[in-house]
What does this fold into?
Amino acid sequence: MDASFGPEQAARWIAVPGPADDKYSRGVVGFVTGSARYPGAAVLGVEAALRTGVGMARYLGAGRPTRLVLQRRPEAVTAEGRVQAWVVGSGQDPDDVDELTAALRERALADPVPTVLDAGALSFAGRATGTRVLTPHAGELARLLGRDRAEVEADAAGAALEAASRLSAVVLLKGHTTYVADADGGLLSAASAPAWTATAGTGDALAGILGALLATHALELEADPGIAAPLAATAAVLHGLAAERASGGGPFTVLDLCAELPATIRSLLAG
Ligand SMILES: NC(=O)C1=CN([C@@H]2O[C@H](COP(=O)(O)OP(=O)(O)OC[C@H]3O[C@@H](n4cnc5c(N)ncnc54)[C@H](O)[C@@H]3O)[C@@H](O)[C@H]2O)[C@@H](O)CC1
Ligand SMILES: Nc1ncnc2c1ncn2[C@@H]1O[C@H](COP(=O)(O)OP(=O)(O)O)[C@@H](O)[C@H]1O
It folds into this structure.
């Protein structure tokens, strides 16, 4: 039986900065995302994280995605340094990244902080040393489990739970209803997104939102890694509500969704 997770629950998981905060105490999210083949995914993740609210977004990658990230978001920091959470794999094929990106990916996986494993990093989940949150769609989860996509779609919640238990991870399975399963058999579900959300790049934005939420809850996650599951469900709710605002009943682009994140969060905080 899953617990449906909505705006009321999500509002509890937004870190509001206080007068004593600075950019580092708010949290730094690091990205090793994008590639020569998919540079745009790097831009979308960073954009989404900054719009969700974070002390700093640090982007590490090859020249082209780095230039594109900076062009869109000059506030992104492209120098190495400490982070409180990583987002790895969006816009990457597991065996088709340049040497620099592969080395950065290894360093991120070896860093024992919470890590979002998306797209091309899903198959490296076993190597991640921090709390892992996987963000597959049904096709990716089917590959991870060695099943058919149709089988996963027929029992999405069951497949997410199986993967979470097998990989000792939180698994956020994307779809019209998004399921968040944890390794202890906990299951949350969020269904706030319109079907217009099924457009290329929305998953890259979701990974960025989640990275920002993990980074801004670093201390709480250290004390209780179990909160990664409600934080993942919060990311799905924010993403879905921002998509709904961007859509208004029609099509929208991923940057439109990102642009709606601040107003979505304001409205959740206002209750
Ligand atoms: N703007 C960007 O840079 C974007 C990058 N993306 C990245 O693209 C990579 C692949 O993600 P996917 O979600 O496409 O991976 P999938 O596992 O869904 O698909 C893998 C490949 O199978 C093929 N394929 C599968 N179903 C197909 C269909 N019905 N029609 C045509 N071709 C089909 C495509 O060639 C695709 O590249 C990931 O690294 C992802 O992060 C996507 O997020 C889209 C946007
Ligand atoms: N029919 C649908 N209704 C609502 N949301 C959807 C639907 N299909 C996909 N989504 C959402 O769109 C996003 C797609 O992510 P993903 O498949 O990773 O795309 P991409 O890799 O192109 O970024 C996910 O957040 C998913 O939950």
Notes: The chain has a mean pLDDT of 97. The radius of gyration is 17 Å. The pocket of adenosine-5'-diphosphate (ligand 2) is lined by residues 137, 174-176, 178, 193, 195, 197-198, 200-204, 206, 239 (CB under 6 Å).
